[in-house]
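Fig. S4 source data, part A: sequence.
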Amino acid sequence: MTCKATAMILYDEILNALFLFTLGTIYGFLILSQNNTERILYMLHILEPPCLPITQSEPAYCGLASLAMVLNALSIDPGRKWKGPWRWFDESMLDCCEPLEKVKATGISFGKLVCLAHCAGAKVEAFRTNQSTINDFRKYIMACSTSDNCHVISSYHRGTFKQTGTGHFSPIGGYHAGKDMALILDVARFKYPPHWVPLKLLWEAMNTVDEASGRPRGFMLISRLHRAPALLYTLSCKHESWVSIAKFLVDDVPCLLKSEDVKDIRNVLSVILSSLPTHFREFIKWVAEVRTREEDGSQSLSQEEKERLAIKEEVLKQVQEISLYKHVTEFLSSEKSCCKTILGTENEENFPEIAAHVCCQGAGLLSGISGSSQQFCCQATCVKCFKVNGDKPVTVVSGTVVNGSGQQGVEVLVPSSQSELSCWGCGPSNYVGMYPASNDILTALLLALPPETWSGIKEEKLLQEVHGLVSTENLPTLLQEEVLHLRGQLQLLKRCKDNKVEEDLGAPLF
């Protein structure tokens, strides 16, 4: 083999003649064209830009790239911008259940990819090959191949196809009933284009054991949830402390409430909040609307930005109207400084510092470098308020973020709970109440704790009062959906912490 031939194969490997036909060949396209016309148009759409560039950016990112492609095909909102005005998933946004650096080094397991799909706001049904049959698999692929509302991601071993590599994830883009073949949309586009595979051969490739987990591979069905994903709050495992914090919330809090002789709501809050682990504020975040600043300095919001900001503000308003919020606020306002230090409330007046950190995180996201705020320095932060066409004032944090390759203007749209806002420039001011603060965040997180958390409270009357405060049944719809999403995230992270995500893929989230 010459060097030139080697280079050509490394650039775009040739599929082995195991009845694998690339979509670009005449035969491959004929297979596609024999399916129904609507599906042809849909398939051609998702194979064109901007979907087409979703090829894994790292050798071990096949799971992340597959999930990003499917989430985008389902039009699930990532809650933040990708580039320019586009709200689009890429791999850098998918770090809820596993740090990106770890995925980059070792890849991601089947169970944790299921976890990621849940965290991103999708509905997921997952099956290992020992939990399903080839007939079930065929039935699901046929259903998803005639619908825009469901997609299949397959986990298989490349060796079965005599391809280079080992374990791999790819979406399934179509099915031909007459030939019993599936279309694999390979996300390693630098190696293989989309190609048709006999379904029996694909099942054989899936019916192998993943050496890392010791469990069979399989497939997952991903569709849209009937409820909205996180709008204002989300849980994060970016900081290494997330394991201890998840353990505290799910395992330790029920034990504390059972061991302590709590007499009233204040005692309940004191038991929980005075024992919060360090770096607690790194675990629950408010979802910021980050965008690139216009070069000409013009201030305007698109209709979509206005609508999303209004929804965030409505969620914040609903949090602040419930009784639990009032109890939390009263407790924090009277508690000793040690509790405030853990929660970060003593620094909440210094909003520009917080905003500078958010701008750095935003610059990392806009650059596709998730979790990299330490690589950026916020040179200047300006908190300002503006009105457009008589609309209510909008609070914007504007920052100039610098890294080794240059600088970037970043803006963060801040949800506000105030009905009337005064406008200001870049000088110091009182920003309390201008963004989701500790009392808002803690209220949301207490609501998201599993219902059984409170069962250890001995006083029956107090137990009923607590249940009344934390029950999701009587919450407004937006806040209820927000709380249920947080509760689901917390359960997922607990299963990650306990290394149980691989065991029961169908375990209920809440």
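Fig. S4 source data, part B ends here. The chain has a mean pLDDT of 74.
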